[in-house]
């Protein structure tokens, strides 16, 4: 499993940091000759496919309705709770995860679809940004991040995430 890239985007939409950290690895492909039943689970007020694949429905897809009946906990229109932007986008080759802070800074990670613990990694990257970029007296907000300590700690966090798969409290 791998983390391909990390991007930091300022509130105006400008790229202020980019790190490409992917070295290609060999993959093994498995083919199943029978359809698997779907196992659903509730996660963050959404019903997600936890196991199985059938007719284009894959693990991680959200189930919005069954037989026309709404099954999710997220509201979209008519004064109800809405979306604050992309949090995760999944393709066959990567998953894009995004964490937006209250100040508008966005942390984006492109990772292998099987990589676990990306939400924790995004919060860890935010912590590293706060500790090594924002506390640097030579760093100006909204400007590109050019701080060696930020680079070193970010690379260390990516290595830990790739090996362990998750970040626990206090890491």
UniProtKB/TrEMBL annotation:
GO CC annotation terms, alphabetical: endoplasmic reticulum; Golgi apparatus; TRAPP complex
InterPro entries: Longin-like_dom_sf, TRAPPC
Keyword Transport listed: yes
SMART domains: Sybindin (SM01399)
Keyword Transport: yes
A biological process term (GO) from this entry: endoplasmic reticulum to Golgi vesicle-mediated transport
Pfam families named among the record's database cross-references: Sybindin
Keywords: Endoplasmic reticulum, ER-Golgi transport, Golgi apparatus, Transport
Localization per Swiss-Prot or TrEMBL: Endoplasmic reticulum; Golgi apparatus, cis-Golgi network; Golgi apparatus
Subunit structure: Component of the multisubunit TRAPP (transport protein particle) complex, which includes at least TRAPPC2, TRAPPC2L, TRAPPC3, TRAPPC3L, TRAPPC4, TRAPPC5, TRAPPC8, TRAPPC9, TRAPPC10, TRAPPC11 and TRAPPC12. Interacts with SDC2.
Family the UniProt entry places it in: Belongs to the TRAPP small subunits family. TRAPPC4 subfamily.
Known role: Core component of the TRAPP complexes which has a function of guanine nucleotide exchange factor activity for Rab1 GTPase. Plays a role in vesicular transport from endoplasmic reticulum to Golgi and autophagy. May play a role in dendrite postsynaptic membrane trafficking.
The protein's name: Trafficking protein particle complex subunit
């Amino acid at each position: 499993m791998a983390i391909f890239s990390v991007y930091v985007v300022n509130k105006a939409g400008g790229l202020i940091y980019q790190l490409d950290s992917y070295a290609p690895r060999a993959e093994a492909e498995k083919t199943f000759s029978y359809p698997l039943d779907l196992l659903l689970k509730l996660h963050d007020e959404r019903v997600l496919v936890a196991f199985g694949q059938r007719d284009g429905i894959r693990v991680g897809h959200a189930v919005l309705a069954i037989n026309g009946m709404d099954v999710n906990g997220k509201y979209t229109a008519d004064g109800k709770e809405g979306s604050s932007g992309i949090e995760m986008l999944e393709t066959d080759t990567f998953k894009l995860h995004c964490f937006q802070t209250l100040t508008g800074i966005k942390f984006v990670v492109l990772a292998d679809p099987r990589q676990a613990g990306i939400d924790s990694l995004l919060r860890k990257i935010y912590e590293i940004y706060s500790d090594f970029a924002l506390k640097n007296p030579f760093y100006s907000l909204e400007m590109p991040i050019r701080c060696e300590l930020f680079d070193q700690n970010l690379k260390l966090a990516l290595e830990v995430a790739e090996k362990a798969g998750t970040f626990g409290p206090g890491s």
